[in-house]
Structures are given as C-alpha cells and as structure tokens.
Specification:
The protein is mainly β. It contains three helices and 23 strands. Helix 2 (about 20-30) runs antiparallel to helix 3.
Length: about 450
C-alpha cells in the first residue's frame, strides 16, 4: 500500500499538482492506507524534492524559501491656490501632474533571514548632489518628456531569531521601512531611514500585545570630522482588541538627534543634507568644528511623542461591503530643548478603510506643528503654507514651503472600485503659525487627486 501511495504522490507532483499533495495524503490517512507518521514523512520528502527542483529551474539557492514581488504606480493631479495679501504680494496658482513608481523584491531565507530591496522614482530637479528627495518618490511631468530616474528606495537584511507563540523579535540593518509607528507629523510616509532597528512584540493575552521599537540611523556622513549627525529613538506601544467592536492603540516614544549642528543648509559653501522642508529656527553663519555653516539649527531635538487611537467597528454600514471601522485618534510632540514653539499636536476621525474592492474611506484631521517641535526635514512633505519673505527659518527661500511652523485642516476621501485600484482626493487648508519677519497672508490650499494601482 505504501508503494501505491508513493506512486500517487509522485503522479500529482509530475503533473504540476503539488499543491494538492496535502489533501491527497489526508485522504490516504483517512482510508487507512497510510499512518499519520508515514504521511508526514512523505510531506517532508515531497517538500525537499520540490525545493531542489525549483532551485534548479530558477537558478536560486536552495536556502531561498520564497520570493515575493510587490509595488505600486500612482498618478496624481495637484493644484495650489493662495490667498491675496493686502499689499498685493501673493503666490501664483499652479497645476501639475506627477507619478510615483515603486517596485520591490523580498526573499525569505532559511533560518529566519530576509533580504529585500525596492526601486523608486524620484525628481532629479531638486538640486541634490547625492540621491534625490528623501521624503518623496514623486516625479513631475516636465522637460519635454525627458527620461526619468529610478533610485534605490530600500536595501536591507533582516533576521527574526525570536518567533514563538508569545514573542516575536527581529533585527534589521540597511535602508529600511520606518520601524516606528507614527503619523506623518513625525515622519513622512516615504521616508526610509538608513541604519539599524530592533523590533520586539509580546502577547500579554489574547486581547493585548506590547510592541517595542528601537532604531539608530545615520543622517549624514561627513569625512572631515567625527561628529556626524545621528537619529536615535525608542518606542513602546500597547495594542488592544477589547471585543469584536472595540480596539485601541496607545504609544509613547523618545527621539533624539545628535550633532544636529552639522544639519545646516550649507556646510563650507556646499549643500549639507537635502534642504526640502522649512520651519526650524536657524542662526546666522558661523565657523565651527564642522566647517563654515550657513543657517545652522539653533535648538537641539530630543522630543517626547505620544499617540492614542480608539476604533469602533460596526458589523455593517451603508454601501460598505465589510465591517465598518470608525477611528478617532491623535498625537502630541513636546521638544524640551527648545524654549518656545516646541509643541505639536493633531487630532482626527476616519470612517471606513479603502484598499479592497467596494470599500471607501473618509477622514478629517487638524494638525498644529510649531517651528521647533521636531526636525523639519523628516516631516510630511505635503503640508505647507506660503512664505512671502525669506528668513533663517526658510533657508533663504520664499513661496510655498512645507515642513514645521504650519497649522491647518486635512480632508481626504478614497474609494477602491477594484482590489488593485484606489482613487482618492485630499485637500489641505493651511497657514503659517508664525509669519515673522513679515506679517502677511500665508494661507494656502493644496488639492491632490490620486489613482493608485498596486501589485
């Protein structure tokens, strides 16, 4: 009987039906042809043979257990509108079309290792001498159909040595997805830090889990001295599911930037790190151990960040083809190293969740981000206002600038007509918190219309 079973399994594999082996073996056990032990041994042998055959066909190493491809393409129409000032000085309303492309590969390896990389689009016209905008993969349609750039967006290795019923722990090194769970008031969603991260999760019970995230990241490498700027952080979160209707999330974190004096708009006459956003208080030029600085940061950044959310899920809702979540949440930042303008907060509500066929989402959020609550160059690159005059806070620039020192409203609506496609509209109504040195009309309206295809 055992020979009959082996022959049957082999036939399924040869004919491309290896995925049905488990069900066939279960039937043979039910009929008494095989014992459970014999069936498990056959499964192991079948898996080994399949792995060898797959490795031979694909040319991949035997220790590669899975290979996944993923990514998305986003098309965007975007417009900007500015309020008129009494002096007649204002921005020019503008319109543009943009795209974002991301394509990633993840290899699952034996012994709980993982390697991955992702390519992404990026705008070459930002004046950055090394790489492109660190907080955006957008590329504008322009320059008579010129060829566009593709850059390395992720490149990392990950090891998960701790994997049990109660514990999960991993270490990641490289250019990675942000290991911290924050809103875009703290980190732009496209920011992929470079360094090392440690993530731990412990199941306190069936309803509650404790998560701990830590990271140490390089902000710049300066060959002339040893005082390179680094970003450190630690975060603790409690995720709870109280019942089928109620769930909550609470987190607290501490972040720190060391040697921030090197994060000037220029060092020795050349660009320091990419100067994309604005808002932080900056001082006059000075000669320091890192060279001649222009518009150096005045304050240190060691903020405490807290966030919380509460979700209620209805079993059904009008024109929504799944359980309907209603989420209320907010976050708060306090940077004790800055004497004034050192707080930030946001609060909002979200109805539904788009992303699968027939599902939609509506949300409102108010954001208030003071100038020195957090480092301007890592926060949301879509939330800004109009500067009519240049100052050290703007790096000498004027016009519409994103970053800190901004407050306002964000409205968003999304709908997924298909699993692969999500359509969305986002509107920002914002203005500067502190308009000095030129009191002026800083209000701006920014509208984004998106179509995202994911794969």
């Amino acid at each position: 009987m055992g020979l009959v079973a082996i022959a049957a399994v082999a036939g399924y594999v040869i004919n491309g039906q290896a995925q049905s082996v488990d069900s066939l073996l279960d039937k043979l056990v039910d009929k008494g042809v095989l014992t459970v032990k014999e069936a498990n041994e056959l499964r192991d042998e079948t898996d080994k043979d399949f792995t060898k055959a797959y490795s031979a066909k694909s040319g991949m190493s035997e220790w590669v257990s899975a290979l996944k491809f993923n990514g998305d393409v986003r098309g965007r129409y975007e417009s900007f509108y500015y309020a008129n000032d009494t002096a007649g000085v204002t921005g020019t309303d503008r319109h543009r079309f943009r795209y974002r492309l991301r394509f990633g590969v993840t290899a699952a390896l034996m012994d709980n290792f993982e390697a991955g990389f992702r390519l992404g689009s990026g705008d070459l016209d930002g004046g950055i001498t090394s790489g492109v905008d660190p907080i955006s993969n957008n590329q504008s349609f322009q320059n008579n159909g010129s060829k566009k750039g593709v850059f390395l967006d992720l490149a990392y290795g990950k090891w998960t040595p701790l994997r049990s019923e109660d514990w999960l722990g991993s270490v990641t090194i490289g250019k990675m997805e942000n290991p911290f769970v924050f809103s875009d008031m703290v980190f732009d969603g496209d920011y992929t830090p470079e360094g090392a991260a440690l993530q731990l999760a412990y199941n306190l019970s069936e309803a509650h889990s404790l998560r701990m995230n830590g990271g140490a990241f390089v902000l710049d490498e300066i060959g002339a001295h040893s005082e390179d700027p680094y970003l450190y952080g630690g975060q603790v979160r409690l995720e709870s599911t109280w019942n089928k209707h109620w769930s909550s999330s609470v987190g607290v974190a501490w972040l720190a930037i060391e040697n921030e004096q090197a994060l000037a708009t220029t060092v020795g006459g050349s660009p320091s790190v990419p100067n994309i956003n604005a808002g932080n208080t900056r001082g006059a030029s000075a000669n320091t151990s890192v060279g001649a600085l222009a518009n150096a940061l005045v304050y240190d950044f060691h903020p405490v960040v807290a966030d919380a959310s509460l979700t209620y899920t209805l079993e059904e809702f009008w024109r929504y083809k799944a359980p309907f979540p209603i989420r209320l949440g907010g976050d708060f930042i306090h940077n004790p190293n800055a004497g004034t303008e050192n707080n930030a907060w946001s609060a909002g509500i979200t109805f539904g969740k788009a992303g699968k066929k027939g599902l939609w989402e509506l949300s409102y959020r108010y954001k208030y981000l003071e100038a020195d609550a957090w480092y301007e160059e890592v926060v949301d690159s879509d939330f800004g206002a109009f500067y009519q005059g240049a100052s050290p806070n703007t790096g000498g620039s004027t016009g519409y600038l994103t970053g800190t020192n901004v407050k306002g409203h964000i409205l968003k609506a999304s709908y997924s007509p298909f699993n692969a496609l999500t359509l969305g509209v986002t509107a920002f109504f914002s203005e500067l918190i502190n308009e000095s040195p030129i009191p002026s009309e800083s209000k701006a309206t920014r509208v984004q219309v998106d179509a995202v295809l994911k794969f």
